[in-house]
Amino acid sequence: MQPMPCTEYTADQCQQMLAWVRKNIALRLKPEAPVPEHSPRLHAWQIENNAAFVTLYLDSSLRGCIGSLEARRPLWDELAHNAVAAAFEDPRFPPLRQDEFDDIELQISVICDFTPLGLLTEGQLKQQITPGLDGVLIEYQDKRATFLPHVWHQLPDADDFFMHLKQKAGITLTNTGDTMRAYRYRVTEIGENGE
After folding, report:
1. CB-based contacts of 125: which residues, under 8 Å, 6+ apart?
2. Considering the entire predicted model, what is its pTM?
3. 142-152: per-residue pLDDT in tens?
4. Which residues 6+ apart lie within 8 Å of 35 measured at CB?
């Protein structure tokens, strides 16, 4: 499968995505609110199958993050599903409360250039990754975890980044020659904070 190239979205398209995500979260908080409807005519960029993550921040701290790395559904459906999941179904956090809604900050990460790297040792993997730009997925036996590229802001040192990524996956490697299946990817980031 060819990696999907990164898309440059217009400012208007970015605002539409953020508004769509926020509307879908609001609907779950206020069931009496009008149901957000698809535009009468969705544009090609909205119905193209795409993978994306939706991340919520509250007071600059992570409040939920759910997404997928594989493009299985139209972007508009992907964003609606992941918005609700990030707000109410992330097992690391309690469901978002009504009194938090106005203070959350949204970030959308549309996945692109997803590239399998094969079986690599951690040292080999570090040589294949560009810190600050690449997201990483690792798999070992039945365990897996990913960090989106913006995690580099919190963990700029590659050793720390990969240590926390392995911890997230529950991977304990005892030998420096142990290999993991690895993938790298890039994202188009769209955030309410102007990113």
Report:
1. 117, 136, 138, 162, 180, 182
2. 0.87
3. 999 999 999 99
4. 27
Residues whose CB is less than 8 angstroms from the CB of residue 56 and which lie 6 or more positions away in sequence, other chains included: 62, 63, 64, 65, 86, 87, 96, 104, 105, 106, 107
Task: Say how far apart CA 125 and CA 136 lie, in whole Å.
Answer: 9
Strand-pair category, 61-67 with 52-58:
antiparallel
User: pLDDT of 28-79, one tens digit each?
Assistant: 998 765 655 555 678 889 989 999 999 999 998 999 999 999 999 999 999 9
Cα–Cα dist 152/135, whole Å: 9
Is the model's pLDDT at 133 over the cut of 60?
yes
Helix axis angle, 11-29 to 75-88, nearest 10°: 50
